[in-house]
């Protein structure tokens, strides 16, 4: 078992009586792309700032390659951060910005110039080397911020919502470049974001934080297919939730007894009968029909609204008990369905598509 | 339609012009007017102790040929520049502490205290300094009691500097604190994150970012000290003849208004040039 590159042990940060980060345990491997995601105020940025040494943990340990770095002065750490607002130095040229860290660490001039030139070139900003950074475009500024950190050849690069200042088009282009850069360099990226698409498309593993704690840690597929809590399911989105008692019927069927009737599941794993459970069903697994009699779990509902998202359409349904259901359909399936808002429809899904929240990963869903 | 909007535009502009009017009027009446008079007067002549409108270069040739004018001029310039730099250095640690080390609420209290001397007359402050530093004053007595010379401290550069500092320290403190307070904290953190030690942050981030404000502090201290008359007279005594003293001597000595006007114009030209060069330096930008 190789040693993790970066480890957080029982990390806590409080401001007065407010606990911003609570008991975080996390280890990040060398070369891994880890995304930390969560709503604003969930503690993701505070965690990142503690890794960089910009915030002092109230309690707990931060280790880099097995060595505790809590008490190391910030300027001696090698955990450069790409800032949300980039924090470029406005009274310096592009070159001076990129050379800054090397200059501070007193790297001899020939090596400094060589490394600076290499990174200016690598990120395609060599042509602007003597420009004032205030006169660059958003994408160019982004590259300067990356070059300024990467020129230090860190083992881990911390990124705090680095693409949030860019327009959608530019953001997607930079995502591709970031991913390629990370693969080529083989260094660890810890990437804080509130955007699902960034986290899911870039990261090897995703941490979902809520109210200072880690709600779930896993691969993007893991989190998407098997959300562990209501919070994760709601945060990831596109998931319908039902709650009720776990129950085994006389016929031997297993399911949860919800306000919308008995909803069958394939395999309850370790969950016990009689416990209260949440059931999650992903929008793309839900079938919508105008006539009953199509599936095992069938719930009559009213079609509330349609939401177009390119090739697919999200249908928002509501059951008689008031439960909201989201179903994702292909455009052509919607045309075949020909239902209108306010009309009665039936939502159904296979038992194996229902995921019990909080339960360990189901064997059936591979 | 367009006629209507043009009319409205005109009325609106008239309305703003009305509110903006007092300043240009004031400026024309009490600055531009006297200024033009000053220029005109430098070409007048004095006959039998009477000022006579004229076009004569005699005041200019007389003043420009005075050797002691130039030595006084440069002494004045050097002393006030020295005072400005010393006051700025003296104020900097306090400004730094106010901008970075104490809470915003405390900062207001300290700034208020720093400005409190302005509530008394400057003349009163200089007179009390004279008593404080003079023969048998508090400071000489204190020096005497620890075995040093108990002689008067007046008529020295130290006394003159204390006078200058009394006038300029609060202004410099406020300008510096505001300048340092506006330095982007994220940029400072970013510098530390990239390996800069505290002193490197000061040199590479704080000083360049606060440069306009810090430079303006030096400039204001210089301008105020340069034109300063009261402490030059009462604290510096006759030992340090500065330009303002020369100016009053010229006027007292026989209605030499044209000569005084020439000296004033020279002073203004030098101050204007110094200010322009300083401000241009303070706001220069790097890169293209």
Automatic annotation (TrEMBL), chain A:
<protein>
    <submittedName>
        <fullName>ABC transporter ATP-binding protein</fullName>
    </submittedName>
</protein>
<dbReference type="Pfam" id="PF08402">
    <property type="entry name" value="TOBE_2"/>
</dbReference>
<dbReference type="InterPro" id="IPR050093">
    <property type="entry name" value="ABC_SmlMolc_Importer"/>
</dbReference>
<dbReference type="GO" id="GO:0043190">
    <property type="term" value="C:ATP-binding cassette (ABC) transporter complex"/>
</dbReference>
<dbReference type="InterPro" id="IPR008995">
    <property type="entry name" value="Mo/tungstate-bd_C_term_dom"/>
</dbReference>
<dbReference type="InterPro" id="IPR027417">
    <property type="entry name" value="P-loop_NTPase"/>
</dbReference>
<dbReference type="InterPro" id="IPR013611">
    <property type="entry name" value="Transp-assoc_OB_typ2"/>
</dbReference>
<dbReference type="InterPro" id="IPR017871">
    <property type="entry name" value="ABC_transporter-like_CS"/>
</dbReference>
<dbReference type="GO" id="GO:0015847">
    <property type="term" value="P:putrescine transport"/>
</dbReference>
<dbReference type="GO" id="GO:0016887">
    <property type="term" value="F:ATP hydrolysis activity"/>
</dbReference>
<dbReference type="GO" id="GO:0005524">
    <property type="term" value="F:ATP binding"/>
</dbReference>
<dbReference type="InterPro" id="IPR003439">
    <property type="entry name" value="ABC_transporter-like_ATP-bd"/>
</dbReference>
<dbReference type="Pfam" id="PF00005">
    <property type="entry name" value="ABC_tran"/>
</dbReference>
<keyword id="KW-0813">Transport</keyword>
<keyword id="KW-0067">ATP-binding</keyword>
<dbReference type="InterPro" id="IPR003593">
    <property type="entry name" value="AAA+_ATPase"/>
</dbReference>
<keyword id="KW-0547">Nucleotide-binding</keyword>
<dbReference type="GO" id="GO:0022857">
    <property type="term" value="F:transmembrane transporter activity"/>
</dbReference>
<feature type="domain" description="ABC transporter">
    <location>
        <begin position="6"/>
        <end position="236"/>
    </location>
</feature>
Automatic annotation (TrEMBL), chain B:
<dbReference type="GO" id="GO:0055085">
    <property type="term" value="P:transmembrane transport"/>
</dbReference>
<feature type="transmembrane region" description="Helical">
    <location>
        <begin position="157"/>
        <end position="180"/>
    </location>
</feature>
<dbReference type="InterPro" id="IPR000515">
    <property type="entry name" value="MetI-like"/>
</dbReference>
<keyword id="KW-1003">Cell membrane</keyword>
<dbReference type="GO" id="GO:0005886">
    <property type="term" value="C:plasma membrane"/>
</dbReference>
<keyword id="KW-0813">Transport</keyword>
<feature type="transmembrane region" description="Helical">
    <location>
        <begin position="229"/>
        <end position="248"/>
    </location>
</feature>
<feature type="transmembrane region" description="Helical">
    <location>
        <begin position="260"/>
        <end position="283"/>
    </location>
</feature>
<protein>
    <submittedName>
        <fullName>Spermidine/putrescine ABC transporter permease</fullName>
    </submittedName>
</protein>
<feature type="transmembrane region" description="Helical">
    <location>
        <begin position="108"/>
        <end position="127"/>
    </location>
</feature>
<comment type="similarity">
    <text>Belongs to the binding-protein-dependent transport system permease family. CysTW subfamily.</text>
</comment>
<keyword id="KW-1133">Transmembrane helix</keyword>
<feature type="transmembrane region" description="Helical">
    <location>
        <begin position="79"/>
        <end position="101"/>
    </location>
</feature>
<dbReference type="InterPro" id="IPR035906">
    <property type="entry name" value="MetI-like_sf"/>
</dbReference>
<feature type="transmembrane region" description="Helical">
    <location>
        <begin position="55"/>
        <end position="73"/>
    </location>
</feature>
<feature type="transmembrane region" description="Helical">
    <location>
        <begin position="16"/>
        <end position="43"/>
    </location>
</feature>
<keyword id="KW-0812">Transmembrane</keyword>
<keyword id="KW-0472">Membrane</keyword>
């Amino acid at each position: 078992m190789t040693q993790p590159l970066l480890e957080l042990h029982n990390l806590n940060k409080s401001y007065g009586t407010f606990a911003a980060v609570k008991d975080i345990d996390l280890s990040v491997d060398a070369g891994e792309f880890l995304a930390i995601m969560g709503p604003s105020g969930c503690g993701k940025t505070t965690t990142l700032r503690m890794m960089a040494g910009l915030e002092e943990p109230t309690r707990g340990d931060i280790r880099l390659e097995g060595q505790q770095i809590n008490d190391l002065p910030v300027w001696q750490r090698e955990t450069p951060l790409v800032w949300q607002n980039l924090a470029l130095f406005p009274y310096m040229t592009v070159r001076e910005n990129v050379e800054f860290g090397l200059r501070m660490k007193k790297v001899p001039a020939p090596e400094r110039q060589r490394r600076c030139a290499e990174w200016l070139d690598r990120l395609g900003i060599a042509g602007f080397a003597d420009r004032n950074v205030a006169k660059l475009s958003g994408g160019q500024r982004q590259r300067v911020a990356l070059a300024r950190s990467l020129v230090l050849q860190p083992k881990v690069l911390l990124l705090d919502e680095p693409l949030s200042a860019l327009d959608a088009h530019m953001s997607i282009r930079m995502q591709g470049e970031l991913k390629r850069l990370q693969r080529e360099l083989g260094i660890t990226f810890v990437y804080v974001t509130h955007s699902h698409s960034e986290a899911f498309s870039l990261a090897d593993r995703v941490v979902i934080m809520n109210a200072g704690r880690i709600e779930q840690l896993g691969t993007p597929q893991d989190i998407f297919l098997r959300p562990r809590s209501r919070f994760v399911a709601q945060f990831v989105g596109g998931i319908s939730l039902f709650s009720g008692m776990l129950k085994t019927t006389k016929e031997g069927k297993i399911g949860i007894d919800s306000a919308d009737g008995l909803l069958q599941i394939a395999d309850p794993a370790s969950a016990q009968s009689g416990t209260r459970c949440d059931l999650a069903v992903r929008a793309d697994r839900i079938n919508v029909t105008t006539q009953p009699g199509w599936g095992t779990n069938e719930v009559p509902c009213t079609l509330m609204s349609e939401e177009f998202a390119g090739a697919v359409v999200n249908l928002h349904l509501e059951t008689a008990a008031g439960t909201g259901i989201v179903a994702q359909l292909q455009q052509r399936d919607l045309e075949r369905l020909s239902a209108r808002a306010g009309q009665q429809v039936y939502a159904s899904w296979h038992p194996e598509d229902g995921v019990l929240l909080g339960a360990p990963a189901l064997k059936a869903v591979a | 339609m367009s006629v209507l909007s043009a009319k409205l535009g005109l009325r609106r502009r008239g309305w703003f012009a009305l509110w903006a009017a007092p300043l240009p009027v004031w400026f024309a009446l009490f600055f531009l007017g006297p200024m033009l008079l000053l220029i005109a007067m430098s070409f007048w002549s004095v006959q039998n102790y009477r000022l006579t409108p004229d076009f004569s270069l005699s005041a200019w040739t007389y003043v420009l040929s005075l050797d002691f004018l130039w030595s006084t001029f440069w002494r004045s310039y050097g002393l006030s520049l020295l005072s400005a730099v010393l006051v700025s250095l003296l104020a900097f640690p306090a400004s730094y502490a106010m901008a970075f080390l104490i809470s915003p609420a405390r900062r207001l209290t300290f700034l208020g205290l720093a400005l409190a001397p302005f509530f008394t007359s400057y003349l009163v402050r200089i007179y009390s300094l004279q008593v404080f530093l003079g023969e048998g004053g508090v400071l000489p007595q204190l020096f005497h009691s620890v075995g040093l010379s108990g002689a008067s401290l007046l008529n020295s550069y130290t006394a003159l500097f204390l006078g200058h500092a009394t006038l300029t320290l609060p202004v410099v403190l406020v300008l510096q604190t505001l300048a340092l307070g506006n330095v982007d904290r994220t940029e400072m953190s970013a510098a530390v994150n990239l390996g800069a030690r505290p002193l490197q942050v000061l040199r590479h981030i704080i000083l360049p970012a606060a440069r306009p404000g810090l430079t303006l502090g030096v400039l204001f201290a210089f301008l105020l000290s340069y034109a300063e008359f009261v402490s030059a007279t009462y604290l510096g005594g006759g030992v340090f003849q500065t330009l303002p003293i020369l100016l009053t001597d010229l006027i007292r000595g026989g209605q030499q208004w044209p000569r005084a006007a020439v000296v004033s114009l020279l002073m203004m030209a030098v101050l204007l040039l110094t200010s322009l060069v300083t401000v241009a330096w303070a706001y220069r930008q790097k890169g293209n």
